[in-house]
Amino acid sequence: MRTRNLGILMTCGALAALSLTISSVSVAQAPPASAATPLPAIAPSIPPAYVVNLATAEGMTAFKAQWKNMDVKIVEAPAMPNAGAAWKTSYDITPKARGGGHLFMTWFRASLTVPAKIGDFDTAGATAVLSFTIDDYAEAWVNGQMPRRAGRPSPATIQGFNMPNRVVLAEQVKPGDRFQVAILGINGPISLAPPNPVFFREAKVEFFR
């Protein structure tokens, strides 16, 4: 009986040591953690108190803004470090592209300045949400950040195939607040690129109380 118990203990000890070894190897081979990025704030689901249409000249004038865009194309680049022998090159983008049945990408940029009043609506203290739909896929940056989390939905900043993006600019805006907006638009599906270029289906700022 003692011999049997001793054998069981030795087996358990060996398994524990093996588990510890595998765990140590896994930790050693794991890629370094990426820098933390903030989670996107979730936009309110109630009807907005006021909406400004950024697809109109009047709407952009309210924010003292103007849309600018720069086309993008994919170019070949050197292989990524430690990518492995099978990967001889990588790819990057440069600000030029052509549409018409090919993958088409473009940057849309604008600097929005919150006014004290739009029509009869006082903006101070309101939650401001940038709501837009790109045909077909979009990534949104605000003031140099794209809040997101791998493995979690990011409906605010990353969205695809004509799904709306709703980015919370601020939960309590103040007159004079400025937001540098940069939106990368891509036509799609990427594996079956349509003949049309990238365009806004809608773009607006929603205010909530």
Brief write-up:
This protein has helices at residues 2-29, 57-62; strands at 50-53, 68-78, 89-94, 105-113, 117-118, 121-122, 127-135, 137-142, 158-159, 165-170, 178-186, 199-208.
Number of domains: 1
Cross-sheet strand order for the largest sheet: 3-2-4-11-8-9
In CATH, the architecture is Sandwich
Radius of gyration: 25 Å
Strand content: 35-45%
The helix fraction, in percent, is 10-25%
CATH topology, what is it called? Jelly Rolls
CATH first level:
Mainly Beta
Silhouette:
elongated
Order of helices and strands: HEHEEEEEEEEEEE
Give me the secondary-structure category. Answer: alpha+beta
In angstroms, what separates the terminal alpha carbons? 75 Å
Describe the biggest sheet?
6 strands, antiparallel
Count every helix, treating DSSP H or I runs of 4 or more residues as helices. 2
Given as residue ranges, the uncertain stretches (5+ residues, pLDDT < 50) are: 2-6, 8-34, 96-100
In total, the number of strands is 12
The average pLDDT score comes to 78
